[in-house]
Design brief:
One of its GO terms (molecular function) is ABC-type vitamin B12 transporter activity. The chain is mostly helical. The chain is built from 13 helices and two strands; from the N terminus they run ααααααααααααββα. It has one domain. A hairpin with a 2-residue loop joins strand 1 and strand 2.
């Protein structure tokens, strides 16, 4: 039933993509904002309590409805499909990626910068075509992991629908309580960030492994082992290092120094820590197409593994 639920949800999303600003997501964002406003008194413990309350408020009803649906024919399957459809985001932001690819292919760098700025919420005014492509590839790999492959992993757990909800909400809280300007360096969001790190630890490694298997395996493993630590977020580093190596692309901002990265291969030149460049070619328009191919191959690999697992459970 797990494989069928995911397959049906993916097919439905291809036909009717769920908008990123849909009513359910808007309600969750408002709920998280109200909890932050009510609990945030400057202490890490307050953030932990708010996180636990939100998770209980969303996971318990989801699990209870699933349990009730198991008493009715096909009801549990329908509920699983609905939850997976709501938690997956395979095509939430694909229009940005596709539009950036078209803009770069036509030489319209200005339009590509504008689209990338809307997608990533960062300043892109000084980016050239290569940097635009690189950032778009990085954003696409991380977004696909968090909106698709991470959901797959947690949906396989015993409380499948509830665990899928937990993963997506934990990912959102880690961003909402740490990334905005007014929330940075606040103790309130520390627990949310730590919780998502542990929740995402195994899925991130599985996604990186999938990229290695369906891409250039040797280069992916080499980049994973030697360059993943260059990103502040370890899970992101693993995904981008393996993904870049699998495609033969040079990812990561090589202008960063040891103050913001922790790679073991740093050397000091004139008192400034420099790093060997990430192996591979500079990202370009073709890199965007390579990313699409890598993601689809990884998705097919995940689906094959889910099919084999579901078949083994059914036969057992």
């Amino acid at each position: 039933m797990t494989f069928l639920s995911i397959l049906c949800a993916l097919l439905i999303e291809q036909l009717k993509p769920l908008r990123a600003d849909n009513m359910i997501y808007a309600w969750v964002k408002q709920f998280a904002a109200r909890m932050e406003a009510s609990f945030n008194a400057g202490q890490q413990s307050h953030g932990r309590l708010a996180w636990l309350v939100i998770m209980a408020a969303l996971m318990v009803p989801t699990a209870l409805i699933y349990w009730l649906c198991t008493k009715l024919p096909f009801a549990a399957l329908a509920w699983n499909i609905l939850v997976v459809y709501l938690t997956l985001g395979f095509r939430h932001y694909s229009h940005y990626f596709t539009s950036i690819q078209i803009a770069l292919s036509s030489g319209d760098d200005a339009a590509a910068r504008k689209l990338l700025a809307e997608w990533t919420k960062q300043d892109t005014s000084a980016m050239d075509a290569s940097e635009i492509a690189r950032v778009a590839v990085e954003k696409a790999l991380v977004t696909t992991h968090r909106n698709v492959f991470g959901v797959f992993f947690w949906f396989l757990m015993p409380l499948g629908p509830a665990c899928a909800v937990m993963y997506r909400v934990a990912e959102y809280l880690a961003r909402a309580w740490n990334e905005p300007e007014h929330m940075r360096n606040e103790a309130f969001g520390v627990f949310a960030a730590k919780a998502f790190y542990y929740i995402d630890f195994i899925p991130a490694h599985l996604t990186a492994s999938a990229f290695a298997v369906v891409g250039n395996f040797e280069d992916a493993v080499y980049a994973w082992r030697n360059f993943a630590d260059r990103w502040n977020d370890k899970a992101v580093g693993i995904i981008l290092a393996a993904g870049g190596g699998a495609m033969g692309l040079r990812l990561g901002d090589t202008s960063k120094t040891a103050a913001t990265m922790s790679a073991p291969d740093a050397v000091t030149i004139d008192g400034v820590a420099e790093f060997d460049p990430f192996p591979g070619e500079e990202a370009g328009t073709r890199a965007l197409q390579s990313t699409v191919g890598l993601v689809w191959r990884a998705l097919l690999l995940w689906m094959l593994m889910l099919l084999l697992l579901s078949t083994a459970v059914w036969l057992g």
